[in-house]
Amino acid sequence: MFDDSSPTEVEPTFAVSLSEKVTTFIRTLPEPPGGRPWLLYGLVGASMFGNVVLVGALLLSGDSDPVATVAVTPPVDEAVAAPAEVLEPVAPVAVPSDVSVIHGAVEGSLARTFQAIAPAEQADVLSAVTARLFVFDLDLRSDLQRGDDLRVSYTWDGALAHVTAATYGSKKLGRTLAGYEFTATGDTFPSYWGADGAELAPRLVDSPIDGYEQITSLLKDRPKHKGMDFKTPVGTEIHSPRAGVVTRVNWNWTNNGNCVEVKFNDGVLAKFLHMDRADVTEGQNVADGMVLGVTGNTGHSTAPHLHYQLERGTTVVDPIDYHGTTRRTLPDSDRAAFEAEKTRLDQILASSGA
Q1: Percent of the chain with pLDDT over 90
Q2: CA separation (Å) from 353 to 89, 99, 346?
Q3: pLDDT tens across 209-231, in order?
Q4: What does the mean pLDDT of the chain come to?
Q5: Binning pLDDT at 50, 70 and 90, where does residue 94 land?
Q6: Each residue's pLDDT tens digit, 98-127
Q7: Is the domain of 232 the same as that of 131?
Q8: From CA 294, how far away is CA 276, in angstroms rounded?
C-alpha cells in the first residue's frame, strides 16, 4: 500500500491506451448526411475518456483490495422494509365473562383517555386505579404523550374497578410499562409486579404498617392531601416507625376518627388517622416498632385505610423522603408461576386487538 506522506507518480499508460482506442472507434463511425457531427463525437469521447481516467485512478490508488472497500446498498422498498424491532405477537384467548378489556391511544390525560375508551360510569374510577400502578415510574402530569398505548383488563362490581393487568406504552420513556396482579409467597394480599418480576410500588423502609393491599394516595396526589394512604382491612396493626412520645389522641374525631399523634425523638411529628382504635394514651413514651392501635374506617373516610402524615414544624414532610424506599422482587420459587400468570394476562390484554 502506498504511503500517503510520500505521493508516487504513476505513468497513466492504461488511460492513454484506452484513449487511442476511443479515437480509432470514432474514426470508424459512418458519415451521416450533412457530414459527421463532430461536436457530438467530441462530447461522447470526452465522457468516455473521463470515465476511463477515473477507473484507472481507482486501480492505481494503492489499495490492495479495492472490492472490500466498496459497499453497494441495493435500493429498499420502504413499503416493505422490516422494522428495527419486531415484537413477538401474543395470541389472544377467550376472555372470562366477568373481565373487561379496554385499549386505546392516550388523549392528553389518563382521565380524558378513559372517558373516551371506557364506559362512562367506570371511566373516572378506572383512571384513578390505573394511575396507582404507574405513578412511581411515570409522571402523570408531564410524561404522558398523545398516542401512547394503553391497555387494561379489569372486573367491575358496580361501583369499583379491580384491575388485573395493565400496560402503558410510553413514547417519552421509550418502553412499555406493565403491571400484573400476583400474590407472592408469604403475602396476604396480591400486589402488582412488572414484567421483570419487580414490584411496581416501592415500600417505605420501617413502614408504620405491614400487610397492606396498596398505596392509594401519595402526598402530592391532591393539593390538600398531606400524607400517604394505605388501603388495608380494619384491624391491621399500626407500629410507631421511630421512638418518641404520644402528644395527642382522638382529637377532631369528625375528620380524623380515632387517631394518634407521636413526636419522634428527631423532632418530626407523625399523625395516624382513621384508626379503629388507639392502644396508647397521651404522654406515653413509645419505642421503635411499638403497636399504637389498629386500622379502621372512622372519621372522614370512604374505605378502610390508614392516613400517615409527617410534619417538621409547619412543613409537611413526604414519607418517601423521610423513610426512604425499597422495591421487592419475586423470589426464584415464584418465577415459574408468575410467568404463567403473566402469559395468561398478556393474552387477555391482546384480545382487545392491535
Answers
A1: 68
A2: 11, 15, 12
A3: 998 999 998 987 777 789 999 99
A4: 82
A5: confident
A6: 999 999 999 989 999 999 999 999 999 999
A7: no
A8: 6
Q: Residue 2 domain-assigned?
A: no
What cell does 220 get? 402530592
Mean per-residue pLDDT, 320-326: 96
Q: Could you tell me if residue 74 is inside a domain? A: no
Domain extent, residue 143, equals 100-202+341-350
Q: What are the distances in angstroms from CA 196 to CA 173, 183, 339, 342, 347?
A: 16, 15, 10, 10, 17
Residue 7: inside a domain: no
Rounded to an integer, what distance in angstroms lies between the CA atom of residue 130 and that of residue 123? 11
Residue 127 lies in a domain: yes
**How many structural domains does the chain have?**
3
Question: Does 213 lie in the same domain as 192?
Answer: no
Q: What is the pLDDT of residues 2-43, one digit of tens each?
A: 343 333 333 444 344 444 554 454 455 555 555 555 444 554
Q: Which three cell numbers stand for residue 134?
A: 404507574
Looking at the fold, whether 234 and 191 belong to one and the same domain comes out as no
